[in-house]
Write a structure and sequence with these properties.
single chain, about 350 residues, alpha+beta, Aminopeptidase, Elongation Factor Tu (Ef-tu), domain 3, 8-stranded mixed sheet, 6-stranded antiparallel β-barrel, 8 helices
């Protein structure tokens, strides 16, 4: 990954985009893709679309721009903030973290409090729900706190991206800044190949709270085929449960979904392109649901052929998600190549 591409990824990762509050991240996406697109636009809820104008077929490359987080549920009279979830925030990794409350007047620093180990009962394991936790912003009392924050302000964990050994990267929100980055780069790489197809790069909103943005933009675009990019569970760590092991590993390449929403013709096409382009892929089984925006895209209107392509990711929905940037680059290569060659595989329909 060259410096310009990495700068775009770091820019996305340093921008807070909890579901329902994605605007700043969507701006970063549009600023980047506008250089390579013939047109950029948004809808009323902030789904962001970049278009490379070719002919038929019309191909959507999509990632979701939102992340999980927390929200201020109430401000107590002693100045602490009570919480609710935004999406699937994990209570087991919440306590003892730095957080940022994104208030109307700007960011407010805080900590998600934890009773000191010395003061807890010996052997007691804290299994409190998010709703039982609190954020301490250092306010003297409720009046002082309410001058800084209000009910409904979103909260994100305050972590910076960090390079690990080799090409591994740890960060909050790789789910799914990785997919947004890949969609933007897929568009750029398709344009560099003078794709005959019309290619859309899309960053959707509100995936983490019900895949709502994809439902909106999928209906609006009505494409021929969708490649939805999200993270996939890598289970190549010592504590990964054997009963849910996927066989997916960092460095093994893009993950191609099979089953459920994954259209068999599109699956075969993506695998064929990967083979021709020398991109190693891994396979993932989806017996009933991909858990991604693809579920909303493929049921748009009368149905759209779609496939889920994943970036292997460790520790999903924690502040320290880990990917291999070589996998991410390979996903972008695969998306660009598929979009450029989509005409070879159209129409995308099962043969009965």
């Amino acid at each position: 990954m060259d410096d310009d591409r990495r700068a775009f990824l770091d820019d996305l990762l340093s921008t807070a985009t909890p579901s329902g509050f994605e605007t700043a991240g969507q701006r970063r996406f549009l600023d980047y893709v506008s250089t390579y697109a013939d047109e950029v636009r948004t809808d009323d809820y902030g789904n962001a679309v970049a278009v490379y104008r070719g002919g038929d077929p019309e191909v959507v490359l999509a990632g979701h721009g939102d992340e999980i987080g927390l929200m201020v549920r109430d401000v107590t009279d002693d100045g602490h903030l009570q919480l609710t979830r935004v999406g699937g925030a994990d209570k087991t990794v919440a306590r003892g973290q730095y957080v940022t409350v994104h208030g109307r007047e700007g960011p407010v620093s805080g900590v998600l409090g934890q009773v000191a180990i010395h003061l807890r009962d010996p052997g007691e394991e804290d299994t409190s729900d998010i709703e039982e936790m609190h954020v301490d912003i250092g306010a003297e009392d409720g009046e002082a706190a309410r001058e800084l924050v209000e009910v409904g302000d979103p909260i994100t964990f305050d972590t910076d991206p960090r390079d690990l050994s080799g090409s591994l990267l740890a960060a909050r929100g790789l789910d799914n800044r990785a997919g947004v980055w890949a969609a933007a780069e897929g568009l750029r790489r398709a344009a560099e190949r003078d794709a005959d197809a019309t290619v859309y790069a899309v960053s959707t909103v509100q995936e983490e709270i019900g895949r709502k943005g994809a439902r909106m933009v999928g209906f609006d675009l009505d494409p021929d085929v969708v490649v939805g990019v999200d993270v996939s569970h890598a289970t190549d760590t010592p504590e990964a449960p054997s009963t849910t092991g996927s066989g997916l590993e960092l460095g093994g390449g893009p993950v191609v979904g099979r089953g459920a929403a994954n259209h068999p013709v599109v699956v075969d096409a993506v695998r064929s392109v990967a083979d021709d382009e020398g991109v190693d892929v891994q396979l993932s089984a989806h017996g009933s649901d991909t858990g991604t925006d693809v579920e909303s895209f493929y049921t748009s209107r009368s149905g759209v052929a779609a496939v889920n392509v994943g970036v292997p990711n460790r520790y999903m929905h924690t502040p320290v998600e880990v990917i291999d940037t070589a996998d991410l680059d390979a996903v972008a290569d695969l998306l660009g190549a598929f979009a450029a060659r989509a005409e070879e595989f159209a129409p995308f329909a099962v043969d009965l």
